[in-house]
Amino acid sequence: MTRATQRLRGAVAVVAAAVCAAALSSCAADDGTYVLHYTTYSSQTSDQSLTMQRWAEEVEELTDGGVQVNFHYSESLVGADESLQATLDGRADLAQVGSLYSASDLSMFTVIELPFETNNPQVQMTAIERLYEENDTYRDDFDRQGVQLLFPLPLGINLIGLQEPAPTPTDLAGRSIRSGGLTSEALLAVGANPVAMTATDVYESMERGVIGGYTSLAIANLPTFGLASTTPYLVDPGIGAYASSIVVINSELLESMPSEYRDAIAEASANAVGNGLEEMDTLGIQACTELRDSGAQLATMPPADVEAWKDRAGIAQGWVDRYAERGYDAERVLADYRRIIGEESARSTYADPFYACLEGENR
């Protein structure tokens, strides 16, 4: 039995009839077919949506058409900040839930936003799954919300795109840089001015000089927003994994399904991390080609400077203290996250597509 199968089959015990009683959108049709509505804030061509499309195709094949998925892209069904709640009130059955929107609903999930913890996306994605299995405090948030984790979606390491170079963290001082989440705290620690804005506004804001750079984006995101061919300087600041999103499903709905359908969902979910990395690599190659064609300069910040930045920012301890005050055993969640990162880092040979581009390689 795979890890995903164990996770999904052992989650919660509920009566199947409760699903239709709760008026969820995907009660089985007379022929036993389930049509699941998936809400996402990602575009149809993003690596995250491509990963989910592969999952849906696999589930439909494994269930002989018994489970199908209808996609609602780019917040066309609900806003990103409503995604989780939408799976509970019947507007959706499956949802992409971003960590940046989860501080109130899935507080412990935000541990994966902590900067300077890992620069390996595969390790981060595996840690998201293992924390769900191994840490009760982390898992309890999902159970309270009535959702189950299916799998994480790909997101590469945090990069900073700039109009002017910044060889070290202190060179960011005084610059207005688009940012979000805990990365903004890191920027404040070196005197930068983080600016909140959607990724779709970055291109025009850079052109107009409203901001001097952007972060909270990975290399695979750049083509989507027209930034791969318009960014003169792209630097890895050492922040590493900085956010993530996950696919969740309504718990009662999942438990109402026939066991063979649940097994099919678990089997497809077990393949999603690998599929996601493939899709992210493909878009990373496209971004790298556009960056090279535009003459962009790629660089990394010195490790010693990054370590000093991490110590100065103190973001991890701040995260622990903030949630400990709310009754969470956040220290244990962070300790387990770091333990898992250490274990998975020793096993993984994956490298973010930025590094291949930096070295002049393509996968």
From TrEMBL:
GO terms for biological process: transmembrane transport. The keyword Signal applies. The keyword Aminoacyl-tRNA synthetase does not apply. InterPro entries: DctP_fam, TRAP_DctP_sf. Residues 1-28 form the signal peptide. Gene3D superfamilies: Bacterial extracellular solute-binding protein, family 7 (3.40.190.170). It holds the Pfam family DctP. Keywords: Signal. PANTHER family: BLL6794 PROTEIN, PTHR33376. This is TRAP-type C4-dicarboxylate transport system, periplasmic component. It comes from Mycolicibacterium hippocampi. The lineage of its organism: Bacteria, Bacillati, Actinomycetota, Actinomycetes, Mycobacteriales.
